[in-house]
Amino acid sequence: MNNLVKIIALVALIIYTSSCTNKVEDDSFSFAFLTDIHLTPDNNAVDGLRQALEKVDSIKADFIITGGDQIMDALGQSYERADSLYNLYIEETSGLDIDIYNTMGNHEIYGWYPESHADSLNPEYGKGMFRKRISDTYYTFEYKGWKFYILDSVKKAGKRKYRGYIDSTQLAWIKKDLENVSSETPIIISSHIPFISSWTQIREGSTMPNHEGLIVVNSKEVLEAFAGHNLKLVLQGHLHILEDIYIRDIHFITAGAVSAAWWKGPYDQTEEGFLKINCSGNDFSWEYIDYGWNVE
Ligand SMILES: [Zn+2]
Questions:
Q1: What does the mean pLDDT of the chain come to?
Q2: From ligand 1's centre to the CA of 188, what distance in Å?
Q3: How far is the CA of 143 from the centre of ligand 1 (A)?
Q4: How far apart are the first and last CA of the chain?
Q5: Which end of the chain has the least Cβ crowding within 10 Å, N or C?
Q6: Cα-Cα-Cα-Cα dihedral sign, residues 241, 68, 181, 220
Q7: 281 CA distance to ligand 1 centroid (A)?
Q8: For the whole model, what pTM was predicted?
Q9: If you measure from the C-alpha of residue 74 to the centroid of ligand 1, how many angstroms do you get, rounded to a whole number?
Q10: C-alpha to C-alpha distances, 237 to 45, 191, 196, 254, nearest whole angstrom
């Protein structure tokens, strides 16, 4: 081999090796899961959210998923109040250089509580406000070979009540969508109301049942729809606690709260924070990031 051929071979080898390395790096990504922000003009919540978003920027997350209850609140408020909180949330998050996939929580639902005096014929009544201003209440997207299901876990159950529930229309949609998903594709669900949690048992005793406003009452049925698929993780909010239950190869993580105790300090030993999820290949790891907010 003359020298020129050797050099060409070496350059080709370097290019090949670096493209392989890039390929491996390309598979991995990270995202931030911010739940229970409960944005309000009060309690310095706007500054708190800004600080959380600055932290997300500094850790170079590829995108954000919110876990619901982005605002405080629309359930029992006048139209003007609910409208202004939606506007505040959109204003604080729309100029960012990062995609946000929002999950709907109970507090995004306009007028279900009688004290709101909402007109039920208003197209924004109930989940209409979220649909009009943010997105569908449930949808799916893909990122680097991972599949995400953002679910609507809130169902009306009486005058001043809701319960955790994935309704039959949504369940049928999930089953249909999964027909085109490979059994190997790693899947992550985001559900505001948890599928599985030990919170009631740890607080009230090991034989105590969950209240239906705290948990998705038909999560067993939903999980059965994912049988035979590679469901890795169910991201959960609503409870403001940090919890990781690992069973049948699925993690059920309740991810604290950006607002902790509704912007009044830590809640049940959980600081203001959010999850950072690192995905690589078929695996993920997580950490809870206390973004440094303290009530003054
Ligand atoms: Zn909630």
A1: 93
A2: 20
A3: 26
A4: 73
A5: C
A6: positive
A7: 32
A8: 0.91
A9: 12
A10: 18, 7, 11, 5
